[in-house]
């Protein structure tokens, strides 16, 4: 789930940043994502709670970035959507009677934590503006 939520959030924030003086509707954003406006509104709520965007209701309402793209780090977005490790555990619980099964999830948890921290450190060095200059 992290993979798609991160991509969706980056897409939304980049689109908002490409039109900094406009209030973009969830319908317009959904059109760019080729998605449903209800999904967009859910993600906008998360981004608003984090202080990355601001919204206003009404006929001329919509959403826009709360601060410039150069002041938003990709690590902020990653931290916002990450609620578990990037890699997941097997859906089946290992056999606790097995010498490997009894200890593998603990070892994987440590490894996955290190991977997550590496990703976070890398993304901390990239702003939304840095990332988007490749295609805006």
Report on this model:
- With 136 residues, the protein is mainly α.
- The model has no long low-confidence stretch (mean pLDDT 92).
- Helices cover 53% and strands 6% of the residues.
- β1 and β2 form a beta hairpin.
- The protein has a single domain, classed as Orthogonal Bundle (Arc Repressor Mutant, subunit A), CATH 1.10.10.10.
- The chain has a two-stranded antiparallel ribbon with strand order 1-2.
- It contains six helices and two strands; from the N terminus they run αααββααα.
Task: Describe the structure concisely for a colleague.
This protein has six helices and two strands; from the N terminus they run αααββααα.
- Which percent range describes the beta-strand content? 5-15%
Backbone CA Rg: 18 Å
> What is the overall number of helices?
6
Number of domains: 1
Specify the CATH homologous superfamily.
Answer: Winged helix-like DNA-binding domain superfamily/Winged helix DNA-binding domain
List the helices and strands and how they pair.
Elements: H1 2-18, H2 26-33, H3 37-49, E1 53-56, E2 62-65, H4 74-81, H5 104-124, H6 128-132
Primary descriptors:
136 residues; mainly alpha; Arc Repressor Mutant, subunit A; elongated
């Amino acid at each position: 789930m992290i993979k798609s939520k991160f991509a969706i959030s980056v897409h939304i924030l980049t689109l908002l940043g490409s039109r900094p003086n406009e209030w973009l509707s969830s319908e317009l954003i959904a059109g760019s994502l080729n998605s449903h406006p209800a999904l967009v509104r859910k993600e906008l709520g998360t981004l608003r709670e984090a202080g990355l965007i601001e919204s206003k209701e009404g006929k001329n309402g919509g959403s826009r970035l709360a601060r410039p793209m150069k002041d938003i780090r990709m690590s902020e977005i990653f931290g916002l959507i990450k609620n578990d490790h990037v890699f997941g555990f097997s859906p089946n619980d290992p056999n606790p009677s097995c010498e490997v099964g009894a200890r593998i999830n603990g070892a994987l948890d440590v490894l996955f934590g290190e991977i997550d921290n590496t990703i976070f450190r890398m993304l901390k060095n990239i702003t939304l503006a840095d990332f988007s200059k490749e295609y805006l």
